Amino acid sequence: MIDVDDVVFKSINLFPEQIKDSFKKSSELNLPKEYQQVKNIIACGMGGSRFPHYIIKELFKEEIKIPYLINDDYILPGFVNDNTLVVLSSYSGTTEEVLTVGQKAYEKNAKIIGISNGGELKFFLEKIEAPGYFFDPVFNPSNQPRIGFGYLIGGIIGLLFNLKILNLEKNNILLSINNINIKKIEEDAKFMAQKIINKYPYYIVSEFLTGIGNAIANQTNETAKSISSFRVIPELNHHLMEGLKNPKELAKISLFIFFFSKLFSSSIQKRFHITKEVVEKNNIETVWYELRGENKIEQAFELMIFGNFLTMYLSSLYGENPAAVPYVDYFKKKLKEV
Predict the structure, then answer these.
(1) Does residue 68 sit in the same domain as residue 193?
(2) Quick one: pLDDT at residue 5?
(3) Is residue 324 part of a domain?
């Protein structure tokens, strides 16, 4: 076991500051008035710049009144036009897929906005005279997007608030993040990491927590260098439960982690309990983790922070460097050589 990387640890503890800083600054930007008239949103991003959109899309599913789609490849939907808001999200500003669809969005006369630390994306937006929110990641000394994704969370919420696409009291965000007990969450996550070591975790989520399941799976892969999946109730009830029988070795390494909330709808709460029972009937270990926050936003922030700590401690148990991504770096290098 190695010591937890100090820079990563600092970044995780500064996660609330990332959100507060970017939310305040992005919500106060001077943006074109015509951007408030858009009919749909296309969010373009990959990895740690993609899942923040997924989190927000599901967390505010009932509050966002226009279609909000995530675009995670090189191709834009055919309906994109001058009534579409295309959000180009790239922590580094160098994401190839995002830059490619940014040019296509410009050719379709879409309304374009960016969120980034700078890089080529900033130059592109300046060239086409499109607005953007460019954060200074002082609260993310690790400089890893998946660990500094609070900048994307706060920045995206701030932009949607700014454009009156998200009807939300500004203080709701700040109060929710200030109410989080980080030390308690860290203790829970450290304990959970001990349960996950040498297991294949399936993170089970639903409703407003769905996007965060995606985030934790992503972080488990990159930060802990460990395989993982996230699954969504009720969708998994229609197929996954029948797939637990084979191969027989599956039961030995699988671990289903149920992230449960009493704020889920009554139907979903029932499904969580019954799904856990079915998984255990297949001799697969389960863990139940209940969120404590008083409202959906608090619970969402709570689970994001939990995922940060969980995957950091898991990386330590595996003896991995949580800040390094050698195969991602190798892949990008080889891609440029082709």
Answers:
(1) no
(2) 65
(3) no
Q: What is the pLDDT of residues 165-222, one digit of tens each?
A: 998 888 888 889 888 899 999 999 999 999 999 999 999 999 999 999 999 999 999 9
Determine the structural domain holding residue 142 and report its residue range.
6-177
What is the value of pTM for the model shown?
0.95
pLDDT value for 3 = 47
How many domains in the chain?
2
Do 68 and 149 share a domain, yes or no? Answer: yes
203 in any annotated domain: yes
Torsion of CA 171, 173, 176, 177, to 10 degrees: -120
